[in-house]
Amino acid sequence: MESHQEKLVAKITNLYEKLSSLEDLSPSNHVNTLFTNLVATCLTPSDIDVTKLSERVQEMRPKLIKLCGKAEGLLEGHFSKLIGSHAYPLDHINVFPYYSNYLKLTHLEFSMLQKDCTKLPSRVAFIGSGPLPLTSIILATKHLIKASIHNYDLDSSANAKAEKLVSSDPDLSKRMFFHTADIMNVSSGLKEYEVVFLAALVGMDKEEKAAVIRHLAEHMAPGAFLLLRSAHGARAFLYPVIDPCDLQGFQVLSVFHPTDEVVNSVIIARKNPRPILSWNQEFDSATLPPTKCSELQCFNPLNHGNLFEELAIDE
C-alpha cells in the first residue's frame, strides 16, 4: 500500500507531466486548473524532505519550479496589464487571485521584521519585483507608509508595467522606484538600504541563489536586514529552498514555516556588522557569526498552528 508521501509525490509528478507537455503556460482555464491543483497538493500537510526523495523526483523538482516561475510571471504580467488599464489601477489591485495571500505574507514579514528592527526603515530594496510588485505596494501603503522602496528587476517591460500601476498615485509615484538591472551588477548601491527583500524566484537553483546571497553579503550595509522567501515540506516543489546555514556573512534571526494557504517560508537575517573578506578570498572563521543552525526553538506567535523557529544567536 502506498504511503501518504508516495501518493503526494505521485500526484505532483503527474501534474508536472501534464504541465510540461503544454506549449503555452499563459493564463487559461486549463492552465489555471492545473496550477490550482498543484498548489493545493503542495499545501497538503506533510513532513516530506525533498532532499531524501528518489533521484528521479529530485531531477524533476527544479524543472517543475522553473515551470511554476514561468507561469507565475505570465500570470502577473496578464493581471498587471489588466489592472494597469484602469485610470486608477491601485483601486483594482485586489482582482489578482492571490492578492489575499500577499496581504498575509507581507503582514507576516513585516511583523517578523518589527521584532528585530528597532526603527522603521526609510529605504528598502525589493529584488525581483516583476510586473506586479504586490509586496512593495502593500508595504508602501499599509506598513512602511513613509519609506522609499526601490524595485529591481532584469526585465524592462516588467518594470514598465509595474511603474504604470503606481504612476497615477500622488504618494506612491514619489516613493516607489524601478531599476532595470541584474542585482549581481549592483554593488555600492546596495549599501543605501536598511532592508533588502529577496524574491523567492531570484536564483532558481541552489547555486544561483547562493551566488546572489554571497553578493548581498559582500555589498549590503553592515547591520542591514535581509528578508528571504524559501519553502518547506511539499511546498519545496513550488519554490527553491534556502538553508539558513548557507547564509554566511549574515546572522540568521528567525525562520517561519506557514501551515496555512501562504506558500512561502520566511527567513530574517542581519548582515554581519563586522567587515567580511572579499568572497574570492578564504574566510577567516573569526569574521563569521556563530549562528547555531542546530539549535532551534519552536513556538507559535500567530496562534494558528504555524511553525516559527528562533535561531540561537551569540552576539
SSE blueprint:
Blueprint: H1 4-20, H2 29-42, H3 55-84, H4 99-116, E1 123-127, H5 134-143, E2 148-153, H6 156-166, H7 172-175, E3 176-180, E4 195-198, H8 206-219, E5 225-230, E6 250-257, E7 265-271, E8 296-299, E9 307-311
Parallel strand pairs: 1-2, 1-4, 2-3, 4-5
Antiparallel strand pairs: 5-7, 6-7, 6-9, 8-9
Describe the protein.
This protein has two domains: 4-95; 100-311, Rossmann fold. 37% of the residues lie in helices and 16% in strands. Helix 1 crosses helix 3, helix 3 (55-84) packs across helix 6 and helix 4 (99-116) crosses helix 5. The longest helix is centred in the N-terminal third of the chain and has 30 residues, at 55-84. Strands 3-2-1-4-5-7-6-9-8 form a nine-stranded mixed sheet. It has helices at residues 4-20, 29-42, 55-84, 99-116, 134-143, 156-166, 172-175, 206-219, and strands spanning 123-127, 148-153, 176-180, 195-198, 225-230, 250-257, 265-271, 296-299, 307-311. It is α/β, with parallel strands linked by helices and 315 residues long. It has eight helices and nine strands. The protein starts with a helix and ends with a strand.
> How does the major sheet shape up?
9 strands, mixed
CATH superfamily of the largest domain: Vaccinia Virus protein VP39
CATH-defined fold name of the largest domain: Rossmann fold
Query: What is the chains' assembly state?
Result: single chain
How do the strands of the widest beta sheet line up side by side?
3-2-1-4-5-7-6-9-8
- Please identify the structural class as seen in this structure: alpha/beta
Give the C-level CATH assignment of the largest domain: Alpha Beta
Number of domains: 2
Order of helices and strands: HHHHEHEHHEEHEEEEE
CATH architectural group of the largest domain: 3-Layer(aba) Sandwich
Through-space gap between termini: 50 Å
Radius of gyration (CA) equals: 19 Å
Given as residue ranges, the uncertain stretches (5+ residues, pLDDT < 50) are 276-315
- Quote the beta fraction: 15-25%
Average pLDDT level: 87
How many helical stretches? 8
Shape, principal axes of CA atoms? globular
* Fraction of residues in H or I helices: 25-40%
Strand runs, count? 9
EC number: 2.5.1.43
Enzyme class: transferase
GO molecular function: nicotianamine synthase activity
Catalytic activity: 3 S-adenosyl-L-methionine = nicotianamine + 3 S-methyl-5'-thioadenosine + 3 H(+)
